[in-house]
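Go through this fold for my students:
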Amino acid sequence: MSKSMKILEVIKSLVAAYVFTGIALAALAFAIYEWNLNETVVNIVIMVIYVIASFIGGFITGKRVKERKFFWGLLLGGLYILIIYGVSIIMSASLDMISTAGIAACLLCLGGGMLGGMVS
């Protein structure tokens, strides 16, 4: 498989990860509306959604690429969190993500994508 085909597979897997993220965040919004969840719980659930989404994307990428799966999963996890940070910076015009929680989210998404690639 050529490198351009592998990158195309990463992009397709990234779309799948964001579809999962959208559905999961919509379910979280409904849960917040129904049960008035506190901010700490919401932040933890958002982090879990990010990790699961990057794992799913890494898994799909690993299944499709079939070589150096950990690398392609790691790449997917990095792209996933970079896009989230990019959109956050555009929407809020600030760099609030550079914090302990932001760094933890970055590392967890990288790890989730890499683990997904490895187990695929």
About this structure: The mean pLDDT is 93. DSSP finds four helices and no strands in the chain. Residues 6 and 65 are 6 Å apart (CA to CA).
